[in-house]
């Protein structure tokens, strides 16, 4: 027998493409999938929630404070006889639409002013930076309470106010990303072609900062959800009687002994939706960073 016949097959020490012996990626994928399914369901409920408002606000004193599991009322009723399950489903619209608008509006302002500050620098950067510093020094909840107390702010006025209060931190994040991209060769090439600063900023630099923008946008939705629900809990924003998770938690304190689902269910939904947004945003940011490295 030849010497080569006794040799063992050579084994590569390099990892097999696509193999993951740690088990981490499948777990992260499973969590991201579950988070995505939950958010899709919440988005669908937010779209159809206006059609549920009449059924949710229908009162029946004879059915007041029914416990969970009562016939025709899976989660029971409140002190006015309103079905808790319908209130929760109908409250998805105001609980979710506002935070999405806050995060999107804040990021639009951040892209505009953060890009200007990061690319132009100089006096523009100084002025925007000082305004950002002033806004960051303001306590969000306290300012919202004071403004609502003075002007009687409604739901969308509260949303607009939170957009202004949320954008300073986003401006800093976008500015940092643009500052890192500005010295790159592709920017110098665009400048040599005599392209306008606006085109260089928003057609060339911003797309390269998009992963940072998208990840922060999703995280802001979760923060805005908690903030707006807290304001609703304090009676700011949504009108009394309007289905809303924060308002439902506030109303549920008075009937927690008779029907704890009135308080527990919307509180759990706020926690779960916020966690799902953060987990999905983190996973999305990781995937975008991996693609950027390839």
Number of strands: 0
Classify the secondary structure makeup into a structural class: mainly alpha
In terms of DSSP E residues, the strand content is under 5%
Question: End-to-end distance, in Å?
Answer: 47 Å
Poorly predicted runs of 5 or more residues: 1-23
In which range does the helix fraction lie? 55-70%
| The CATH class | Mainly Alpha
CA-based shape: elongated
CATH topology: the name is MetI-like fold
Mean pLDDT: 86
What does this structure look like?
This protein has 294 residues and is mainly alpha-helical. The protein has a single domain (27-60, 70-293), classed as MetI-like (MetI-like fold), CATH 1.10.3720. 70% of the residues lie in helices and 0% in strands. The protein is built from eleven helices and no strands. It has helices spanning 24-48, 53-56, 84-90, 92-120, 122-136, 140-151, 155-181, 185-192, 197-233, 245-252, 261-293. Helix 1 crosses helix 4, helix 4 runs antiparallel to helix 5 (122-136) and helix 10 (245-252) runs antiparallel to helix 11 (261-293). The longest helix is centred in the last third of the chain and has 37 residues, at 197-233. It starts with 23 loop residues before the first helix and ends with a helix.
């Amino acid at each position: 027998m030849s010497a080569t016949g006794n040799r063992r097959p050579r084994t590569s020490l390099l990892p097999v493409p696509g193999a993951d012996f740690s088990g981490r990626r499948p777990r992260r994928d499973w969590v991201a999938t579950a988070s995505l399914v939950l958010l899709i369901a919440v988005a669908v409920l937010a779209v159809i929630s206006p059609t549920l408002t009449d059924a949710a606000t229908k009162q029946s004193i004879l059915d007041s404070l029914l416990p969970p599991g009562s016939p025709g009322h899976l989660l029971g009723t409140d002190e006015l006889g309103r079905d808790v399950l319908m209130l929760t489903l109908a409250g998805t619209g105001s609980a979710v639409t506002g935070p999405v608008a806050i995060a999107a509006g804040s990021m639009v302002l951040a892209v505009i002013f953060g890009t200007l500050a990061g690319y132009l620098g100089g006096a523009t950067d100084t002025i925007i930076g000082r305004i950002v510093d002033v806004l960051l020094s303001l306590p969000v909840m306290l300012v919202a309470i004071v403004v609502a107390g003075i002007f009687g702010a409604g739901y969308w006025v509260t949303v607009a106010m939170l957009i202004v209060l949320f954008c300073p931190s986003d401006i800093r994040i976008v500015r940092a990303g643009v500052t890192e991209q500005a010295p790159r060769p592709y920017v110098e090439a665009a400048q040599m072609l005599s392209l306008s600063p606006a085109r260089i900023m928003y057609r060339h630099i911003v797309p390269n900062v998009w992963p940072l923008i998208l990840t922060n946008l999703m995280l802001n939705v979760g923060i805005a959800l908690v903030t707006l629900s807290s304001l609703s809990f304090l009676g700011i924003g949504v009108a009394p009687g309007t289905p809303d998770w924060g308002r439902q938690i506030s109303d549920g304190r008075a009937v927690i002994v008779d029907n704890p689902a009135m308080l527990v269910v919307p509180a759990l939904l706020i926690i779960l939706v916020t966690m799902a947004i953060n987990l999905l945003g983190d996973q999305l940011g990781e995937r975008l960073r991996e693609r950027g490295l390839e």
